[in-house]
Amino acid sequence: MTTEHNSGWNRDVKIPSGKPEGGFTINTGVEVNQLSNEPVSPTREVEKEIKVTDRDIGVLFPSLLFKSRVDDEDFLKDVKEKVLAATKDENAGTIAGDPKDPVGWYSFDDLHQREGFEQVHSFLLKEAAAVFAYYDYKVEQVYLTSMWANVGFRPLYCHMNHTHPNSIFSGVWHVSTPNLGTQFAQTTTFSDPRPAARVIEPSVNKDHAAHNSGTVSPIVNNGSLLMFPSWLPHGVQQSYQDYNGIPRITISFNAMMTGDITTRTAPIRFS
Q1: Which of 174, 177, 171 is nearest to 147 (CA)?
Q2: How many CB atoms lie within 10 A of CB 40?
Q3: CB 3.0 to 4.6 Å from 112: which of 52, 121, 188, 225, for a disulfide?
């Protein structure tokens, strides 16, 4: 059975591929049969058209970002209300900033085990399992090791760049996003995990995109789910735009598996 992997989330990045009509030509000044260490005499300069075909672009060691969305407004409203109710429970999480005027709130990471969030846990677990399946890993069972809610009440809310240790895949589900449809909508920003790739950064002619930038901020909507390898650095950039009474609510999670993991040095078993 053939499985189609749709990467439409990145369709705005136009990458040339295939065989451009006519190829392109260059003036090498060297005959094809004369490619050696001997310099070409100026008196023997030769114009030779070199036709190039079969152009393509290979993607090596990609950092995959999986995007999906829940558009059930009733479900999103129900989850939003439950999270906001939890912010008033001292035993459910912790406040960020001044308790009298908090910038944000974070639940404890056992949200997947708390009453009222069973349906959220079930749907996120199913989506995480699909990512493991995409990688074709030999999985016995997929499970969430942790799940927690993040709430931003007003501007200045942010989350420093970080990764999620002791996990294979992680995800961020955007339940409520202030300033949707504008440049001020606070999405999750991802950073290039390859330090050497940022040693030199040429300027670009137009807009930065995933293949020529050190950071990528996918456009999200209410209900947007982003899943990615846990080692991929990500965070939330600070916003100075008024939230207009709409809190920023996300639910994050970490996913693991049971089964054999074999490296080049030693076999490891997760159970």
Answers
A1: 171
A2: 14
A3: 121
Contacts of 156 (CB under 8 A, 6+ apart): 103, 238, 239, 240
pTM of the shown model: 0.78
Span 66-270 CATH architecture: Sandwich (2.60)
Domain boundaries along the sequence of the chain = 66-270
d(CA 145, CA 124): 12
CB-CB contact of 235 with 162 (8 Å): yes
CA distances from 109 to 62, 155, 213 (A): 29, 24, 32
How far apart CA 144 and CA 264 sit, in angstroms, is: 27
Question: Which of helix, strand or coil describes residue 176?
Answer: strand
